[in-house]
Amino acid sequence: MTPIMQIRDLSVGYASRRAVGLAVTSVNLDVEKGEILGVVGESGCGKTTLAVALLGLIESPGVIQSGSVQLRLADDKLVDLVGLAPRPLRQIRWKEIAYIPQGSMSALNPVLRVRQQMTDTLVQHGLSKAEAIERARWALNLVSLDAAVLDKYPHELSGGMNQRVAIATAVTMQPAILVADEPTTALDVVTQRSILQELVKIRDQFGTTIIVISHDMGVMAQVVDRMAVMYAGRIAELGLVLNIFDAPLHPYTQKLIGSIPKDTGQHLEGLEGEAPSLWAYPPGCRFHPRCSLATAICREQTPELREIISGQYAACHHCD
Amino acid sequence: MDSFPLRQKRSSSQNLSALQARLQPYLPTAKYILKRIGIYFLTVLGAVTLAFIFFHLMPGDPLSIVFSQLEKTNLGRVTGGAEVAEAYKRLLGLDQPLPVQYLLFLRNVLIGGFDLGPSFVAFPTSTRDVIFRQLPWTIGYFTSAMLIAWLIGTTIGALLGWLRRIGLTSVAVGIATLLNITPVYIIAIAAIIFFGYHLHWLPTGQPYDPGLTPNWGDIEFIKNVLRHAIMPIASVVLVWGASFSLGMRSLMISVLGEDYLSYAKAKGLTPFMILRDYAFRNALLPQVTALGIALGNTINGVLILEAIFVVPGVGGLFVRAMAIHDFNVMQGVVLLSTVAVLTLSLIVDLLLPFLDPRIRRSND
Predict the structure, then answer these.
(1) In what order do the strands lie in the sheet with A62-72?
(2) Which residue among A46, A149, B77, B292 is the one 20 to 30 A from B112 at the CA level?
């Protein structure tokens, strides 16, 4: 399979007066066509910054330090989203890569009707007004919403409905890639589940590649094919979600999975300490201060992400 | 056959519920509007009452002031003492008990169309006429200047906010801050010295050239008035425009940090569309409220500018009335400006639901 998106050595930081703190540090990642890839990690691990970088939305004080995000278009041409001029970037947005925002309640403009917010981008991409509305109706129908929603304002809809509107808006142009940033946060579990099912449905129906960003291992387990576990700006582990849940390689992943409540009633394992701030990463492996396996090499050398078992990668000195 | 009337009945009730369903979306708005108007009338009533109480509690007997006024205006000593006083008391309605006076006052003001009795300064001209003679000047100079200041300030402020990352805009922000803190009379005096005395471009004062007789049908006269109005209006526009632009800039910047803005960007909208439909549109809402209050306040006139440019207006009238204890005129000006602020806030309140759909629901 040829990856639809190749992320190479991507480093994204936030500039202060004196230094740049890297929220994402040399991330390499191939996104396969038609897969649902999960990016998981605790708050502040850089997953949202990664998503924002993939959308080409990094803005001052954010800065892309290095790397590239190659997107394969339908005609097999590669486009680097990093450093693309505003005009071609605008054309790629929504047509090739669309975005399902975190907390659609605040992502939708409170003073515009859903109709305008769903269709303005379509008209911008060259559809006629009537076509755009037809497309919006179709997309709403796809996520099981009534077309009457078009005449509503966001505050007149529930949180789940707003999230569905956001998903519908994202598929109006039938993009090749969807980036969903915490698509189910702030929703109750029942709504969460149905929203996730919409995502799976969209992938199954249109072969859309979906990147799901979440802190929730449960979300990962429910919808994702492959997942990348991020810790302190780096990818700690990458592999099929089933394999990772079965046999996590990285100590961090092990702890994460160990902290999921189970029905056996056994005592939950916690993860001591806090993730480091992007202004003060420890040297060597960034996880070593919290790791029970840490040795001298962990404090000095940064472990590379390498294939440990076929298809399962980890960045750890101790997981052979 | 006997089922026919039944069916008809049902269909009419269906029609009714269909009508209800169609009206349903407008109900919150209607409720909101009725509530605002109700509150408006209650507040106006309160303001009129306060004005009445306030001016009846003030020390000094209005009658003795009227008499001294009459003496000054060369009518000589008032003879007949008590009888004349009685006559004037009756004329002014001061012989009635206070509650009756209050009710009469309410009737005269609210139903009688702002009838506040005669002015003491210009006795027996009515207070209403005295004030309304000055009002067009005040509106012409200051209300229109405030409107211009708002339009220019809001536009510039929106652009300054939008381009906040461009270093050059901080120069403009600096200038606006400076103008904002400069007292308007300094600007006015500086303008008079520079454009009036140095360059001789513009007249330094007066509403129109002293030799002219007012004739609003004459285009030359109107041109003359406009030429004289440039400096007073420009002073207001500079100072208040700067203040409006700073306000709008910070509103824009706070809106630019909202999630819906980056979402709009992710959708691939052009910067112009984002500016128009997402940033400006949303930042405008509080700015409109600010305009309503500012416009209402201009009805007082900007006394200091009226004095500097020697132009007629309500502000000057108020000061003259104060100097000779002309209660009726003072009361009239206070009432007028209160009602103006209230009325303009009402207009803004009624406009807001059309700008911000959230208001239609949140206030029920």
Answers:
(1) A20-32, A3-15, A62-72, A78-80
(2) B292
